[in-house]
Amino acid sequence: MGANDVLALSANFTQWQSSRMRGLKDVNAFEYYCAENFLKGFGVSDEEILSGLVGGHQNGGIDGMYFFVNRRFVEEETEIDAKTVTKLNLVIIQAKEKDGFSPVAVDKIYFFMDDLLDLAKSKDAYKTEYRERVCDAMSLFKRNYQLVVGESPEFSVEIHYVTKQDVVPNEDCKRSAEKVRAILTKHFSHAHCDFNFVNAPLLWTQVQVRPRKNKALQWAAQPLETPEGFVGLVKLNDYFDFLKHESGELEEKIFESNVRGFWQSTPVNVGIRKTLDRPSQADFWLLNNGITILAGKTSPGGFNKLIIDDPQIVNGLQTSRQIFDYYSGLPAIPKDESRRLLVRVIQTVDKAVRDDVIRATNSQNKMPDEALRATDPIHRQIETLFAQFELYYDRRRGLSKDEGKPIGQIVSVLEVLQAMLAVVLRRPDDARARPRRYMKDDALYTSVFGENVYSLPVYLKSTLLQRRVDDFLGTMRLDHDMPLGYGHRRNLKFYLSMYVASAMYKQVHVSADMLLQLKPEEISIDLILDCYNRVFKHYVDLTHDEYPDSVAKGTKLLKAINTELRRRFSKRKARRDMREYPGS
Fold first, then answer.
1. By C-alpha distance, which of 557, 508, 504, 509 is closest to 534?
2. Are residues 331 and 201 in the same domain?
3. Is the pTM of this model over 0.85?
4. Phi, psi of 546, deg, nearest 5
């Protein structure tokens, strides 16, 4: 076997831990390492990888579970239009750093898959078998699969049983794996299942897979070259090749992450598809506005070929997807295909110019406003401020991960939004249940990210306060000394950060100006613990009659907490309560 591969893997894992895992708490490094490497083809963010990790006690024999619709990661707030769904992918990961392969471990996966894939089996039938986080992941899969099952999409399951040891599976392991494949066929007769035993040499091979950062674009004829880039015509079948990932799937990473919603049922898209299905006498490029691609840099790649570094399609997404779907559905590409598409390649590394191009090239189309939010100047300003504190604001989703930044220092737009909702706007219920509404609705968006609404440091202080609360919740134990479950932490975190801000200043309503003086790292554990006990009591009282998620997403918990805050911190009691936490 590959002794040198094992040494190389060990060295790479150690280096990866020192760079990527720096500052990240309560996460199994090897489980994350495996998930990151086996999800490379899906272009997931760090936030998405973390949300899919379910390892721990009662995990059903799995450490990671990721469900994709049209190769897009599905999370709690994902909205799915069933008519647009053509492909489903489920990725299951079991990671063993010190142990080898075991048929017992595979059998656990078998029983888990039987519970997961039986769409008629409710949570009540297996909730005692799995921890809360696993049950939540199972419910998310079942709920979203049932939305699209009537459209009969292609369904593929990948199971990666990974070990850091240089071992091979025995015959018992292989027989158990066949049982897992059989249970998938039992529930989904047309589904495809890959069960992969991944040892150290195979894991090292996967680690060395590097997603391409450049792609080749073949022009139909010599393009017009300008100081800003290139303009020219590309044959539709060549553009189809440009859009493809090595796997044959659509290369999602080349679509600008902030402008990539696909609105298949719109009249424009219906018209594009009709044009593709029934070629007219006019060439395709005469009937279509074309494509705009941003490039970091370019270089010649042969006769009329352009190598584009980190290409990002910022305009023409709808056209691109229709072209990809059209040619993917053909048994073979016609040899006489001559239709062409107008393509602009703009070369720039200037972020302001990039944002201007994205906004300008999408302004003529009926793109939803939220698709362009991250190009607003406020987000560039937040990005600049956070960088001064070694935090990487992921305005272009996934970029910081691709650059190898430490996971714990990457801050998503959604994280900042939720922190602002909880701490500044005092809407922890919206932070938990409806944060993306604030990206879609103009008035709600302006209430958080409007021009000159808040001083920039308020975004930083709110985020750091929320992270301080998150770290605290990770240390909490329940009466039976079990860690506070992921679902409860998710439900409590925003309410607790709101309460902590009020307790710090002995105010029911904490102003943004007051937050400017806040030093989250200096908030005492005693104060956070007292706030936690108070919030948790209300939470437990309400969950006697209602599901915990419903409590956190509804209005009752917020109302109960606000009532207590008014009772504690009204003006007549503020002076007396100041003595509770001297020096806080």
1. 557
2. no
3. no
4. -145, 150
